[in-house]
Design a protein that fits this description.
The protein is an alpha+beta fold. The chain contains eleven helices and eight strands. The radius of gyration is 19 Å and the shape is globular.
């Protein structure tokens, strides 16, 4: 079913059709926030503070009509309605990874700006250095308010998932704070010790494991800008 309100490119190129599907403002970010599993409407609003309720509703309806998102009710005793990516929707993650690697090369990209928890963890899956993961076995937990996540590293692979709080009890280390504070340690050049001293982060468990974790990710080199084209 097509969204009659959507303006299409009327171009047979598959790239143009991809933009027909996800090129509207906020559409890609809505998909991003669903990449780690189903979310309630209120969860999506909280993760995307710049989006209005009307626009979020429109984007969800459009993505649902195009087969990228499904809406369902959680089983009893829960009564909430959630939105979830379809299997085809989940196939879009490599797009985010390629786009993220490419955009991170922009001289104007600033990793210290606000970002959501899902954005942080997708960046981990994108920017993890295979050579640094090799031979490591590690379980690192994260508490961001009411949300809890577990990152596992084993056999050269990094996986991340939402996890109940009790699963974090066996983690090597647990970060508590905000996604931007973790990003500051991983990408922003701030030491973990200084962030802990500033009370921007709290770490329990093995502090050495937590520090080692922050060194496993590398941003690509910045693109060269022709002389005279630099931003003021």
């Amino acid at each position: 079913m097509k969204n009659p309100a959507k303006r299409l490119y009327d171009d047979a190129c598959a790239t143009a059709h991809a933009l027909d599907l996800v090129g509207e403002r906020w559409a890609l970010l809505v998909i991003r926030e669903l990449m780690l599993g189903p979310r309630r409407f209120s969860d999506l609003r909280a993760a995307l503070p710049g989006i209005s309720a009307n626009v979020l509703t429109q984007r969800l309806e459009g993505l649902e009509a195009d087969g990228l998102v499904v809406r369902r009710k959680l089983p009893p005793p829960a009564t909430a309605q959630v939105y979830e990516l379809t299997p085809w929707g989940y196939e879009s993650e490599p797009i985010f990874q390629a786009l993220g690697r490419w955009a991170a090369r922009s001289p104007s990209h600033d990793p210290r700006r606000p970002l959501s928890a899902v954005s942080l963890f997708l960046s981990f899956r994108t920017m993890a250095d295979p050579a640094r993961l090799k031979g490591l076995t590690m379980r690192i937990g994260f508490r961001f308010g009411a949300e809890t996540f577990l990152v596992r590293i084993a056999k050269g692979q990094l996986t991340v998932q939402r996890a109940p709080r009790e699963e974090l009890e066996d983690a090597d280390a647990v970060f508590s704070g905000t996604p931007p504070a973790v990003a500051a340690a991983v990408y922003g050049g701030q030491s973990l010790d200084s962030l802990i001293a500033q009370k921007a982060l709290h770490v329990t468990g093995d502090r050495a494991a937590a520090k080692a974790f922050t060194t496993l990710f590398t941003l690509p080199p910045k693109a060269a800008i022709p002389p005279g084209n630099e931003n003021d």
